[in-house]
């Protein structure tokens, strides 16, 4: 009888793992750093027996062995299972293990030969840098722009990741908003061109990482 095979696709990361019960060894990109709302897609080579036995065999535990409150959904093709993160996402900086137990079986009752484990950790903002040396004033001084960068616990640039979406931006003048590595200062009542410098602060309230400094104002005029 043909053994059940499992293909786990790491969503977003684009890495795939082929698990075969015909051999004991298998290749896997383990210990990945993923974002807090990571969704896992488990794809099988045939229809899945999506019953309580299969559901109970798929669990996620944290570094202390506590089970995460994940939820499962059978794919439209009946050959895949989607593993959704807990409500509110995984805990930033925490390490987890996704276990696909051998009790997972096909619609004909054929089980996997052994358990499969995937270890992963969640992105955590460990450092914030303001990369520009000055605040660029545009639109006659009503707007200013300055660049920043966000790094995770492994030094990876996660500026455009969803993990970096909840930063707080503050400015000594006007209002400050940031996204994808660019802070925009809106100052409709005080022209930035009349100021020598502006203080700018970026704060991650979840982990305490921050960047702050006073930056000279440089005017940019379109000729």
Automatic annotation (TrEMBL):
InterPro entries reported for this sequence: SbsA_Ig
Keywords: Signal
All copies of domain SbsA Ig-like, residue ranges: 30-121
Record's protein name: SbsA Ig-like domain-containing protein
Signal sequence, renumbered to the chain: 1-25
UniProt keyword Signal present: yes
Pfam families xrefs: Big_5
């Amino acid at each position: 009888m043909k053994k059940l095979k499992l293909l786990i696709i790491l969503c977003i990361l684009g890495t795939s793992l082929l698990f075969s019960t015909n051999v004991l060894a298998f290749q896997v990109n383990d210990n990945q750093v993923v974002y807090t709302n990571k969704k896992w897609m488990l794809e099988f080579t045939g229809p899945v027996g999506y019953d309580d036995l299969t559901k109970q065999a798929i669990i996620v535990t944290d570094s202390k062995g506590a089970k995460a409150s994940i939820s499962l959904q059978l794919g439209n093709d009946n050959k895949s299972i989607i593993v959704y993160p807990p409500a509110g996402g995984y805990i930033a900086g925490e390490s987890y293990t996704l276990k696909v137990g051998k009790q997972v079986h096909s619609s004909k009752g054929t089980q996997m030969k052994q358990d499969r484990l995937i270890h992963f950790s969640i992105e955590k903002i460990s450092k914030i840098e303001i990369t520009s040396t000055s605040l660029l004033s545009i639109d006659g001084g009503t707007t200013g722009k300055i660049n920043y960068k966000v790094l995770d616990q492994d030094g990876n640039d996660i500026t455009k990741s969803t993990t970096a979406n909840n930063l707080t931006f503050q400015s000594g003048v006007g209002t400050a908003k940031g996204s994808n590595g660019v802070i925009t200062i809106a100052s409709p009542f005080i022209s930035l061109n009349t100021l020598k410098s502006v203080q700018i602060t970026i704060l991650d309230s979840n982990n305490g990482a921050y960047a702050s400094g006073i930056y000279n104002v440089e005017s940019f005029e379109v000729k």
